[in-house]
User: Fold this.
Amino acid sequence: MESSATLSIIALWALFLGTHMGLSSLRLRPKLVSLLGARGFLAGYSIVAFATFIPLVGVYGANKHMGAYYGYGSQVGAARPLMYLGMVLALTLCVGAFMNPSPSSIAPGGGDIRGVLRVTRHPLFMGVALIGLLHLAVARVHATDLAFFLGLPIVSLIGCWHQDRRHLATGGEAFAAFHASTSFLPFARGGFAGFREAPLALLAGIALTIGLRIAHPAIFGGAS
Assistant:
């Protein structure tokens, strides 16, 4: 039963990633946009995303902490404070991605490199990836937890790479300049000043971290 749940989580991650990359590929996306229109394509893309991600979360939620046991990171004394600091950074990136969207976002921004875009050109995906890694670092990790939370950084990083390749092929000189002036991985070019330029996103990241810490047992059924 445990191995079946783990395999189901892996399969659903593969389906989620495969449909995302397939629908947004250079070969298929233009045909779908021509057929459905830009809004129709976005609606269909979103429906497919929810249709794959919601079952993924459901399967994991019903099978948390199952299968082989890989350890408990919170046994390390400094793990929890570092987890909260990391969550502030991750959630600040996620919020900042909507406040100052990049040219490669679903709703593209103008490419003004400030705020979280100084940290990474993929703040939303990198924030999600960091959330997955942080949970693996401090949670009681069994096979199903490993499959679910490791999927977050894997899918995010592959998605960022695919997004860059597509926009470099179609975005012209403007995106090429944006790509050349920003970093793929967070802080690869420094970028700490970006948090000073995004005070509202940082405050939201702090507030969300505190709120999630308080509500975590009620929502997710555990302290981590």
In short: The chain has a mean pLDDT of 89.
